[in-house]
Each structure stands twice: as structure tokens, then as C-alpha cells.
Amino acid sequence: MNIVRASFYTATATATRLLAGLVVIKLVARLAGPEGVGKLGQFMSLMSLLAVLAGGGISSGVVKYIAEYRDDTPRLSRLLGAALWYALGASLLMGALTLVFSTAIAQWLLADARYANLIRVLAVAQLGMALANYVLSVINGFMDVRRLALVQIAGSLLNIALVAWLSHWLALQGALLALVLGQALWLAIGLPAWWRSPYFRTGMLRIRFDREMVTRLAAFSVMTLTAALLPPLVNIAVRDHLASSFGWEQVGYWQAVSKVSDAYLLFITSAINIYYLPKLASIGDRAALELELRQAFRFLMPLVVAMALAVYLARDWVTLLLFDTAFAPSNALYGPQLIGDVIKIASFILSYLMLAKAMTRLFVISECVFAGSYLVLVYVLSARFGLVGAMYAFSANYLLYLVFNVWVVRRYVGGWGQWSAQYP
């Protein structure tokens, strides 16, 4: 399967997920008003974090090593057995901690200890989420993009149905409960889809400890934790700085434009994650790797430029549709943000080489360095240019990140053996 077909399937699945999210927000807004939407956002943040961490955050590692070992049956069996062992162990630990602190989490996150039972349900359900992550990672590792997209579409539609049904009976509590059950029930969709695949073997469900494979997967846990925790922490610091400098109303304009970018870029980043991680991991030839990266640029860069240009030209309408007339001042922020989006995708295409080749140390260091440089640039440029300086900081930081990734790729491709030995 090539990038064009993969992009079609991932775009369809992404659109369904976005639709499901919109339906959930609309239902909660109608049932519980602004307060309910606020609590929904907090609860979905917790779910998003647990979805990443469920099973130890090894999904990228499973995808990478399946793509690498798919023709080596003994090593593939060792990998999958170790992945199941790791995922179950990590999810049991995470579930136990969530159960113990359920009341405190409910009070801190939702300002209401009555939601503790819902947190306890989530603690148990995240075991199902971990197994669902495992199944989806196996499907992705075999580059079965069509099957993966169908599972995601079916899961999103199931979420919509569950939210509509339970919110009718239990209002906000029902909507939040449906989100939990819907995520866990993805396993009920993913397992049959996997069983019917031509690459399924019953031995893939055998749990075993393998020191070498567990060590390899643990490296991806470190990368996942870094990538999952740093951006929200940095964004919190950015919001606090902008609020203290310009007020929360201005922060709202910045946040609105950032959310628009996140929404349309999701179509591109999903394709990169689903297609390129296993593809790059499976390539061992320098010429083939260079060709794959060039093809990615030829296809994805014109696409993201066209999407960014369309958003810019329709920015007034987009702001009015997604927000309201009070957000009109945010239209002045789109230009530098969208330029940054284009540079971001260019850098992302190259940065997946670090994940595909398990350059753990380099990946973690680069994430920390560029998170720090972004924060510094926000302070410096917002002091010089005002609120739009935060958008300049976004673009400038990703330009630096792009230069760094060009250097990484050129070093890796030019010095294959030495680079692999230096960053195992």
C-alpha cells in the first residue's frame, strides 16, 4: 500500500473521530451547559493521558519492531509475548494507582468527589484500553492500514451511540461513562478484525517475559512519556505567561488558532504515524530510505501547503463557524501559525526516523531541548511583538527543529553503521 491509499483510509478514520468528538461536545453542551463541557474537557484530558500510558506506552515500539521482525517468526513471537507481558503489567500498576487515588483524582480534576466511582470504572477499563492499543499496534505494524481504519471508524461510531444512549439516562455522568466504555470496547471490535487477518497466529496471544525485548520496549516507554508529558506542560507555562502579560481574553485568541491548527493537521499527522513509522522501520537500505523520505515530501508537503492556504483564506469563516464573533481578533494570528504548521510537518516527516530506528537518547534530548527553546522564544518574541510573538515563536522553533532533523537524517544516511552503533 502506498502513501496515497494510506492517507485516504487514515483521513476517513480521522474525520470519523473528529465527528464523534463534535457530537459528544454538542450532546454534553445541551445536557449540562458550559460547566459540563468544562468537566468533559478535564475528563477527556485524563483519558487521553491514560490512553497513551495504558500498557506502558509501547505502541510505537510494537509497531516499529513488528515491521522489522515480520519475516523473522522466532523474534516476532518473542516480541509479541514480551509486549503483552509489559502491557498487562503496566496497565495493572496504573489501574491500581488510579483505584487507590480515585477520590483525590475526582476532587482535583472535576472538583466533585461524587465522580470517584467513574474514575474507578476508568481504572478498570484502562486494562481493556491497553489490550486494544496492543491489538491496534499489531495491525499497524503489519501495515494493514485498511483494517486499522475500519476498526477506528467502527469504534468512533460505537462511541457516538453509547454517549447518546447513556447520556439520555444519566446525563453528564452517562456521557462520561460512555466515553470510558467506548474506549474499552474498541477491543471487542479490534480482536475479531485481527483474528480474521491473514497474519494472525494464536501464539501472538502467549504472554512471556523476554529481557531483551522488554528492554527494547522500555526505551519506547521513555520516548512516549517524554512526547506525551512535555507539550502539555510547556503549553501550560505558555498560557500562564501570555495570561500574565496580555490577559486571559488574549490567551483565548491564541488557543483558538492553535486548536484550528491541531484539527486540520490531525489528518496529516495520522497518516505519518500510521504509514511512515512501520514503513521506515522496515527499511534497511540507504537508497530505499532516501527514496521513501523524498516521496513523503513530494506527496505530503504540497498537501499541507494547500490545506494551510485554504484555512488562511477562509479564516474569517472558520473562526465564526467554530467559535463566534467575539473571536474575530484571532484572525490576525493565523498567518505565522500556518507557516509554522507547514514547517512542523516537514520536520515531523524527518523526525520519525528517530522513532523508526529507536534513537531513544537523541529523541529524548531533542524533545527537552526544543521544548525549552520554544518557551524561551515565546518569552522573547511576545515581549517584542505582543501576542503574535507567540506564533512567531512557534514557527521559529519548528524551523530550528527542521534544521536539526535534516542534520540527523544526513548523519544517519551518510554514516549508517557508526550512527546506529552510537544511538542503539
Automatic annotation (TrEMBL):
Gene Ontology CC, one term: plasma membrane
TM ranges: 7-29, 49-67, 79-106, 118-136, 148-166, 172-194, 214-233, 253-276, 296-314, 334-355, 362-381, 387-409
GO BP, sorted A to Z: enterobacterial common antigen biosynthetic process
Membrane topology per record: Multi-pass membrane protein
Superkingdom as given in the UniProt entry: Bacteria
Alphabetical UniProt keywords: Cell membrane, Membrane, Transmembrane, Transmembrane helix
InterPro entries for this protein: Poly_Biosynth_Transport (IPR050833), WzxE (IPR044550)
Main location: membrane
UniProt-listed CDD domains: MATE_like_10
Localization annotation: Cell membrane
Protein name: O-antigen translocase
